[in-house]
């Protein structure tokens, strides 16, 4: 018997800090040693000519989510996690729903049981849509005790959105408990007003989804979310930043010392209004919120990635197929308004469920557009794909790391493999990818999850149920800075 269960030998390792040559010795699912010429393992994998990064952590994806209207997003934990692993993501954080008018316990019963089918490790953000005293004073503290330490709020979508008063209540509770808060920032009333006018003008195409929520709508809500978080002194992450307007709000607040972080997604630096204008209603495939922007916005998003304002890239993966959801006047919470029909029988833009599938393509697109095109270096890729999310969500030291003691989640990248993204080769359960035909350079050859080969050359070997729930303990980053206006800490009462 060797010292190790598995040795990954001869690769170029990329961590969030450096790039170096070493073997990786793995024991009991954990990285046990790094070094040259490690002794033999019971199993050996050659990484010669490959780049080895920590496994991806997708800290924002919607999997098998059950809506208040009874609809279930089409991606199951089994299919979604197979797709994640095939694309180099070994763990993810998805959402526990709260239905308005329901306790947390009574919302989407059985959801946590379903998650046990995952092949990748997983955790949850708890969505709060109805912050009653019972929920905030009893259920959320119990949830945090169970290791679910992040809350998600929406400032738009009916029936998900919170008023400012409700949002403040969530922020104050999170601060008392040392939980983290993530926010979808768009102005609900502004969007509703624009939708009404667009429909009145007979403008119903998928492109008008973007017209209904231009950057100013996102900027306003981002500014407001940050201001309220600053008032409470509660750390937040602004989800899916799509434009410079919103990113600039985050950068300005960070410069003042506010604990705010910004996330973006591959759709915001690769897709644009052009994709919303596909023939035969295929523009619906690219409907997501915040909406896609003009192509000229991409360079600005890259600049904000490069300057660290946007320091996490997630998929915001959504399980809405073109045939069954996007074209079918989707009955989903992630749409805005009744299904006004068009003469061609397709739904008006406001009734198309919002969201794109991207859990499998997130890292290959980021690697290709970022590393292969020279926009970011390998340590930055690691920060964006796993290490920064691990810090923000209380998984540092366990995920997103190559250091001994961390989980042996690894991706062996072939940096020279050139291919095009094709639906027929993906593992997700959705019937399209918005990146169909995109040429990419760099692809995961092998994904290792906690020391086991989970995917080899596109073949998923990890079984449903082999993923583990990631319970998260207290951590400093989720704590307030101690700065409150006038020294009066209203959240402490
Ligand atoms: N945006 C999407 O595009 N889909 C799901 C939720 C969201 O905020
Ligand atoms: Zn969102
Ligand atoms: Zn989302």
UniProtKB/TrEMBL annotation:
Pfam families: Amidohydro_1 (PF01979). Keywords: Hydrolase, Metal-binding. Its cofactor is Zn(2+). Residues 51-453 form the Amidohydrolase-related domain. Its EC number is 3.5.2.2. It is an enzyme of class 3 (hydrolase). SUPFAM superfamilies: Composite domain of metallo-dependent hydrolases, Metallo-dependent hydrolases. CDD domains: D-HYD. InterPro entries: Amidohydro-rel, Hydantoinase/dihydroPyrase, Metal-dep_hydrolase_composite, Metal_Hydrolase, Metallo-dep_Hydrolases_sf. The keyword Hydrolase applies. Gene3D superfamilies: Metal-dependent hydrolases (3.20.20.140), Urease, subunit C, domain 1 (2.30.40.10). One of its GO terms (molecular function) is dihydropyrimidinase activity. The keyword Hydrolase applies. It comes from the Bacteria. NCBIfam families: D-hydantoinase. Belongs to the metallo-dependent hydrolases superfamily. Hydantoinase/dihydropyrimidinase family. This is Dihydropyrimidinase. It comes from Teichococcus globiformis. The gene is hydA.
């Amino acid at each position: 018997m060797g010292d190790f269960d598995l040795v990954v030998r001869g690769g170029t390792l990329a961590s969030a800090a450096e790039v170096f040559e070493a073997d990786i010795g793995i024991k009991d699912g954990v990285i046990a040693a790094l070094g040259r010429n490690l002794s033999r393992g019971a199993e050996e994998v050659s990484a010669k000519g490959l780049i080895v990064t920590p496994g991806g952590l997708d800290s924002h994806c919607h999997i098998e989510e059950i809506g208040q209207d009874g609809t279930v997003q089409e991606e199951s934990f089994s299919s979604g996690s197979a797709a994640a692993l095939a694309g180099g993501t070994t763990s993810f954080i998805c959402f526990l729903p709260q239905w308005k008018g329901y306790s947390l316990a009574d919302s989407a019963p059985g959801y946590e049981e379903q998650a046990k089918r995952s092949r990748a490790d997983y955790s949850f953000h708890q969505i709060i849509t109805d912050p009653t005293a019972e929920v905030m004073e009893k259920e959320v503290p119990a949830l945090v005790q169970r290791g679910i330490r992040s809350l998600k709020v929406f400032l738009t979508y009916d029936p998900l959105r919170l008023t400012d008063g409700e949002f403040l209540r969530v922020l104050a509770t999170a601060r008392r408990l040392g939980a983290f808060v993530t926010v979808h920032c768009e102005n609900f009333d502004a969007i509703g007003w624009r939708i009404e006018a667009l429909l009145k003008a007979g403008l119903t195409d998928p492109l008008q989804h973007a017209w209904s929520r231009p950057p100013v709508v996102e900027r306003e809500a981002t500014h407001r979310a940050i201001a309220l978080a600053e008032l409470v002194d509660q750390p937040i992450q602004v989800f899916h930043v799509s434009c410079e307007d919103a990113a600039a709000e985050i950068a300005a607040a960070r410069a003042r010392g506010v604990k705010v972080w910004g996330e973006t997604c591959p759709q915001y630096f690769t897709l644009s209004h052009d994709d919303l204008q596909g023939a035969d209603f295929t523009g619906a495939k690219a409907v997501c919120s915040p909406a896609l922007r003009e192509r000229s916005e991409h360079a600005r998003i890259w600049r904000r990635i490069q300057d660290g304002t946007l320091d996490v890239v997630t998929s915001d993966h959504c399980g809405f197929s073109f045939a069954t959801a996007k074209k079918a006047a989707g009955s989903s919470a992630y749409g805005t308004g009744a299904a006004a029909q068009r003469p061609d029988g397709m739904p008006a833009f406001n009734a198309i469920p919002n969201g794109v599938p991207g859990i499998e393509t997130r890292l290959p697109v980021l690697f290709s557009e970022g590393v292969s095109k020279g926009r970011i270096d390998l340590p930055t890729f690691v920060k964006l794909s796993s290490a920064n999310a691990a810090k923000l969500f209380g998984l540092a030291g366990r995920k997103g790391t190559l250091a001994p003691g961390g989980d042996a989640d690894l991706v062996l990248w072939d940096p020279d493999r050139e291919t095009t993204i094709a639906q027929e080769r993906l593992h997700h359960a959705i019937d399209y990818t918005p990146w169909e035909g995109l040429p990419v350079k760099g692809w995961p050859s092998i994904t290792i999850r906690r020391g086991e080969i989970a995917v080899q050359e596109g073949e998923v070997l990890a079984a449903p149920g082999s993923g583990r729930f990631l319970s998260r303990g207290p951590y400093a980053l989720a704590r307030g800075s101690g700065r409150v206006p006038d020294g009066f800490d209203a959240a402490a009462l």
